[in-house]
């Protein structure tokens, strides 16, 4: 399972750690761009921006169940693209 460390921890690693983090973020960004728009929006709102499911559903104008389905499909697709198991 992929975990992310705080910014402070990254500075202690030095240049190599920062380079690896930049490469990883680049991979994530490319994978996000490959998602369908509705899945990308759900992932961004809930997993990146931190909105609750109900709030994200209101923003997107869809029922909570639909938002949840988009989020699950988007997350699973990202994990597959990034070579991780869900």
UniProtKB/TrEMBL annotation:
The keyword Transcription regulation applies. Transmembrane segments: none annotated. GO terms for biological process: DNA-templated transcription initiation. InterPro entries: RNA_pol_sigma-70-like, RNA_pol_sigma70_r4_t2, RNA_pol_sigma_r3/r4-like, WH-like_DNA-bd_sf. Residues 28-78 form the RNA polymerase sigma factor 70 region 4 type domain. It holds the Pfam family Sigma70_r4_2. This is RNA polymerase sigma factor 70 region 4 type 2 domain-containing protein. Keywords: Sigma factor, Transcription, Transcription regulation. One of its GO terms (molecular function) is sigma factor activity.
